[in-house]
Amino acid sequence: MKYQVVIAGFGGQGAVFLVKLLALCAGNKGIKCLGTENHGMSQRGGAVSCFIKLGEFSNPVIDNHQADLLIGLESDEGLRNMHYLNDNATMVVNAKNIDEADIYAKVVQIDAFQSAKEGRFPIQGLNVYMLGVAMAKEPNFPFTLDEMKQALRDFNAKIADQNIEVLMLGMSDASKN
């Protein structure tokens, strides 16, 4: 297996958390992984893009046109990082009106900010919500729901149930989209 993921957003949105979560899933499944925790400003509010490569790789950096999946926690950051996507990739982005005409990847748009504003999940769970959307919409996603639930429990048992609920909500909303 070889699978490459870019996670893009702003500092404080939980991009680094998602890399750690995917790495934990990989470790639990015995898959080699390499990741970068961030590029850009890691301070709250600064642009952040993180990479994780699953499988036999020797370098954690993802080159242009190589990523299989991009999770954009914010629309502008998703668009800014789409040059990493390969021709068969999926771009899952927190947006409501992106013009998909110039995007060569499969695009899944969902307005996660609006769902959080409506009180459907706490804004701190936006990253896990978007992960749920990605799991539902990316047919080659490398981990099962049970594997992701286990990783959430392993990472932080105190908030695992809340994160699992948000993950499931993202998956449910994606299936309606």
On the 0 to 100 scale, the average pLDDT is: 93
**Which oligomeric state applies?**
single chain
Order of the strands making up the biggest sheet: 2-3-1-4-5-6
Q: CATH homologous superfamily - what is it?
A: Pyruvate-ferredoxin oxidoreductase, PFOR, domain III
- Count of β-strands: 6
Q: What is the rounded distance between the termini?
A: 29 Å
Instruction: Write down the Rg.
Output: 15 Å
Shape category: globular
Measured as a percent range, the helix fraction is 25-40%
Structural class: alpha/beta
CATH topological fold name: Pyruvate-ferredoxin Oxidoreductase, domain 3
Residue ranges: pLDDT <50 for 5 or more in a row? Answer: none
Strand residues, percent: 25-35%
Count of alpha/pi helices: 6
The CATH class name reads Alpha Beta
Question: What does this molecule look like?
Answer:
This protein is α/β, with parallel strands linked by helices. The protein has a single domain (about 1-175), classed as Pyruvate-ferredoxin oxidoreductase, PFOR, domain III (Pyruvate-ferredoxin Oxidoreductase, domain 3, 3-Layer(aba) Sandwich). It contains 6 helices and 6 strands. Helix 2 (about 75-80) links the parallel strand 4 and strand 5 (about 85-95). Helix 4 (about 125-135) crosses helix 6 (about 160-175) and helix 5 runs antiparallel to helix 6. The protein starts with a strand and ends with a helix. About 45% of the residues are buried.
